[in-house]
Amino acid sequence: MTLTSIFNSNWKNNSDFLKEKNMTQIADSIQIRNTTFKNRLIKGAMSEALANDAGQPNQLHLGLYEAWAIGGLGCAITGNVMVDIRAKNEPGVVVAESERDLVELKKWADIGKQYGMVQLIQLSHPGRQCPKGLNKETVAPSAVPFSPMLATMFGTPRELREDEILDIIQRFAKAASICEKAGFEGVQLHGAHGYLISQFLSPLTNKRQDQWGGSIENRMRFLLEIYKAVREATSENFIISVKLNSADFQRGGITEEDVITVFKAIDAVGIDLIEISGGTYEAPAMAGAKSEKRKASTIAREAYFLDFAEKIRQQVTCKLMVTGGFRTVAGMNAALQSGACDFIGIARPFAVETDLANRLIAGQDVKYAVKPIKTGLPFVDKMAIMEIIWYAAQFRSIGKGKKPNPKLSPLLVFLNYAKGNIKAVIKGQVNSRKSA
To answer: Smallest Cα–Cα separation from 33: which of 314, 240, 317?
Structure first.
């Protein structure tokens, strides 16, 4: 009997066969440093947008993550947690730049411990990817403007000075130490999707001629220095992971050769886990956009970035996670058994199925097929923004103890988001004038 025919047969028979052959399954536990993950399912990071203007976590975060923990999830990676309140990527994002919110963060970390769910805080700096007016200014490796399609929403950033680069590196370290003190098992450095670390890696957005730009060795220096600073600021058993693009899917962007160099370099210095993703706001492959060219074999195996995972698996020794596209138990187990990855990352389905982990382990596939979120407004639907804010609206409901609504109107969600953004921009402008 072939492996394919086994996967297509009854789940119970599949499960018995896999256990007999000692083949990896999503229900199997695994250890990183001294932390045990009770299964191979990880909720990929998604923006919650639940914090107040000051970037403070609250009861909504606790309710949301408790719902996922009760649902049997092995690990949850949080949405963006910013390392600098002056650089927020959107309203409602959590900021961790001091111990101000340590009590609430401890409550958050304790939820995971109560249910055996590992939690990794995704630390991020958005760089140029901030809506106009949200922050006093935007900064980036170089002053590279956005494509015409997005230039109306995102302004041209100011190029960072070296002292500012060094400050941001230490901000990542400080935030990581706060997360460890709160009781979280680790952090994920957001080095994908066009955020600041990714901007340094890409020659499209990094035009610098100093030690932070030019060759791939220089362009990846920012990431490596952040890892080094975070490792020095935390204990030996604290997990440090990173999210990296397999490609940014833009002409003039980072090459596959350079991507492999980055993966090998971060693995060599001791990273514990790499999540493989791809794309940016301008080319959102992470949301399954048409800009991503995938082989038919990859599509058949569900995962967006599995081909690259198989290639990089031969180059690194750390644990690998592939996120995006997984929808069946058979597909998930096949990916694990191929050796291409150690963890299955699932994001958007968890926004409408909080008990998904338990159901997958019981042999049931994803119930709600993920479809593009369309408002009917062409200028909005061309961007990846609805793939963030529609799900954030679901998170707010879950955080309040309500059930998610798969039929929620995208247009209504966008209009509410736009209204909130306008208020945040006006408030930000008023505060800027007061501090001037």
So the answer is: 240
Given a contact cutoff of 8 angstroms between Cβ atoms, the answer to whether 278 and 247 are in contact is yes
In degrees and rounded to multiples of 5, residue 189 shows phi and psi of -85, 125
Q: How far apart are CA 60 and CA 62, in angstroms?
A: 5
Token pair listed for 112: 């995971």
CB 263 within 8 A of CB 201: no
Q: How far apart are CA 260 and CA 45, in angstroms?
A: 23
Instruction: Give the lowest-confidence range in 11-25, 105-119, 286-300, 381-395.
Output: 286-300
| Mean of pLDDT values over 10-28 | 63
pLDDT digits (tens, 9 = 90+) for 274-289: 999 876 555 544 444 4
- CA-derived radius of gyration, the chain: 21
For the chain, give the mean pLDDT. 88
pLDDT tens-digit readout, 293-325 = 444 444 444 667 899 999 999 999 999 999 988
pLDDT class of 430 with cuts at 50, 70, 90: low
pLDDT value of residue 147: 87
As a three-state string, the secondary structure of the chain is CCHHHHHHCCHHHHHHHHHHCCCCCCCCCEEECCEEECCCEEECCCCCCCCCCCCCCCHHHHHHHHHHHHCCCCEEEEEEEECCCCCCCCCCCEECCCHHHHHHHHHHHHHHHHHCCEEEEEEECCCCCCECCCCCCCEECCCCCCCHHHHCCECCCEECCHHHHHHHHHHHHHHHHHHHHHCCCEEEEEECCCCHHHHHHCCCCCCCCCCCCCCHHHHCHHHHHHHHHHHHHCCCCCEEEEEEECCCCCCCCCCHHHHHHHHHHHHHCCCCEEEEECCCCCCCHHHCCCCCCCCHHHHHCCCCCHHHHHHHCCCCCCEEEEECCCCCHHHHHHHHHHCCCCEEEECHHHHCCCCHHHHHHCCCCCCCCCCCCCCCCHHHHCCCCHHHHHHHHHHHHHHCCCCCCCCCCHHHHHHHHHHHHHHHHHHHHHHHHHHC
pTM of this prediction?
0.86
